[in-house]
Write a structure and sequence with these properties.
Elements lengths: L2 H8 L6 E21 L5 E22 L11 E8 L4 E2 L6
Antiparallel strand pairs: 1-2, 2-3, 2-4
Length: 95
C-alpha cells in the first residue's frame, strides 16, 4: 500500500475527499493503418501511436461518499476537483 492509498483509505475518505494522481496524454504522431466505416455512419480508425507526451499532476477530488470509489466507481454527493500541483511532463514515456 502506497502512502497515497493509506492516506485516502484511513484519513481523507472520512473528510469526503480523495487525493488522486491525474494524467493527460497528448498524441503528437499517429500512423493510420486502416479506416473502417461503422453501420451507424461513424468511422473507426486503427493505427499506432508513434510519439506522445504524458503530463501528470495531483488533485483533490471532493464530496465523495465514504467507502465508495475503490474500483473507480465513485459516488459523488456533488463533484469538486482542484489541482494542487502543477502539470509536469513525464520524460521518456513510451506509448
Amino acid at each position: 500500500m502506497t502512502k497515497l492509498e493509506f492516506a485516502n483509505k484511513f484519513f481523507f475518505q472520512w473528510l469526503f475527499i480523495r487525493l488522486a494522481r491525474c494524467e493527460q496524454n497528448y498524441i503528437l504522431q499517429f500512423d493510420i493503418n486502416s479506416v473502417n466505416m461503422m453501420p451507424d455512419g461513424s468511422a473507426s480508425v486503427g493505427g499506432q501511436v508513434k510519439e506522445n507526451q504524458v503530463y501528470q499532476w495531483y488533485c483533490i477530488m471532493g464530496f465523495i461518499l465514504p467507502l465508495s470509489g475503490w474500483s473507480n466507481d465513485y459516488i459523488y454527493l456533488w463533484k469538486f476537483t482542484k489541482r494542487i500541483t502543477s502539470k509536469k511532463l513525464i520524460p521518456n514515456h513510451k506509448p
